[in-house]
Amino acid sequence: MGIHIAVCVKRTPSSASVAIDGNGQIQTAGLPHGINPFDEYAVEEALRIKEKIEGSKVTILSAGAAESEEVVKAALALGADEGIVVCDPAFDGSDTMATSLILGKAIEKLGDVKLVLFGKQTNDGESGHMTALVGARLGRPSVSAVRKVVESTEDAITVERAMDDGADTLKLALPAVVGVSKEINEPRLPSLKGKMKAKKAVIAKWSAADIGADAALIGKDGSPTSVVKMEPVPSRGAGTVIAGETPEDLAKNLVEKLKETKFI
Amino acid sequence: MAYEGKGVWCVGEVQHGVLSSSLFELITAGRKIADARGETVTAVLVGKGVSAKAEEAASRGADKVLVLEHDALEQLVDEAHAGALTAAAGAEKPKTILFSASIFGRSVAPRVAVGLNGGIASGATNISVADGKLTIERGAYGSAVVATVAVNAVNGPEIITAAPMAFERSAPSESKAEVVNGTVDPSTWTQNTEFVSFSADESSEIDLGGAEKIVAGGRGLGNAENFNLIRNLAKSLGAAVGASRAVVDSGWIPYKNQVGLTGRQVRPRLYVACGISGQIQHLAGMKSSDVIVAINTDADCPMMKMATYAVKGDLTEVIPAMVSEIDRARGSSNGS
Q1: DSSP state of B226
Q2: What are the φ and ψ backbone dihedral angles of B300, each rounded to 5 degrees?
Q3: What are the pLDDT digits (tens) for A220-261?
Q4: Are residues A200 and A261 in the same domain?
Q5: Does B152 touch chain A (CB under 8 A)?
Q6: Residues in chain A closer than 8 A to B204 (CB atoms)
Q7: A247 and A181 share one domain
Q8: Are residue A85 and residue A186 in the same domain, yes or no?
Q9: Separation of alpha carbons B226 and B315, rounded Å
Q10: How would you list the strands of the sheet with B41-47, edge to edge?
Q11: Judged by CB atoms within 8 Å, which residues 152-181 of A form the interface with B?
């Protein structure tokens, strides 16, 4: 029978070299974009569950610009079955709360989704809140920071969640929403056949109307939070080079500094 | 029908019998908001056995401690903890609810935000209130950018997760806040999660998240055996152990010790980077540390350039010398 798994992925700029314009807005136009690196683990885990539960299907879902099709196709090349981009100018300026509504509505429209997977966080917004937000939107259980899927069946998923002082094992009745960390697996590379298939795939585009998203709850006006400005992190002032000819001298002079700053 | 909330809640985490000091960071942040608005700060403890921590929470500068105690909350189950908090906040109507951006906070806060129709902002490193309006600062794009985010929740509370270690911990005080027991009724939430088990880590190492001091090792150590140098120095300084991605990928140390964009983001008072050249992904995870010490043979690498104190030298020589020097320093200070 199998289960229908949805993986939510985001197209993000490579975070290493963002620039900010004079109005405090982030400039990402010229930057290389790709799938949010954390999402690759979610895609991989979905494919592994699909391979375990015969007859399962993996749908890749992305909300954002029309170009999100690229990252959806990249996931199809790895073995996912279908892709959907939820895309509408009305979504512009959506914060995490509004985005969770959009993703939740899209998942509901898919109809028979039993398991929703997310990466730990995005490399641009970095909130790490989306797994729990969408879980709550759907009225279903959610768990974040999952480092291992212990067991997955058509009815439940048992996972290991990394905690600060150990690990919790939790069993979630499906449908459920799971956020995975990067230690969960080693993502595969696309096959040539997969790439060919992805190239030809038709990616459905859903609008706000298609998913029945209330206009008052999406976009900038429907978002309870908004980014006022962005600034580069101020660079740290020049430091001190610790003097010393021998390791002993270096150690002594450094420890002296650490004593001055009360660390010792 | 606008939401009429009042007061700041700071949600404390009690896990496996330990009250996280992140609560005291939240009380500092909460006090700032409450003072600007003429409101009060309530420390909220949710779980099983949390009553035993009420005294401790009450002496850290909050005006009130609200205890949400129930057997059903023995272990962290997102639906249950969020359910208990949602019901309590729905009844008491705080204007603001602060969580730590820990695993607990990132798991529970969003569910509370949806449950109460509020707004949520994540990873606050600073909080300010002007004309009653709340804004936060947060890192974004691999901590290359500081974003200022306005929180304007009209239909529910403002919910913020605060970056661990971003706010000073509130000091213990003589005065004790009033302790109030709240109601927890598991029938107010739906639970489709079964808690199976908890397995504690074997090591008793300090966790990176709330560490005041971190000693981290990188590829410059050369081999897995040399990572013991890091452990020795960490022990000597009373620090947590961190690592670069390269050495985690090499299997010298578990992933939970990884600092950086794809690992943990930390803000200790002291970060000692040993043999870590400072790739941008690693810097993203630690550059907000107050004091950075770099030890490296390459004086021109990015970590050495950004360090508060840069030490050019061989780790296998400098670290043991440091440990001796620290032991000596402690010995003499103990004697005086």
Answers
A1: G
A2: -100, 0
A3: 999 999 999 998 888 888 899 999 999 999 999 999 999 999
A4: no
A5: yes
A6: none
A7: no
A8: yes
A9: 9
A10: A225-232, B145-151, B133-140, B119-130, B158-162, B96-100, B8-12, B41-47, B64-69, B178-181
A11: 158, 161-173, 176, 181
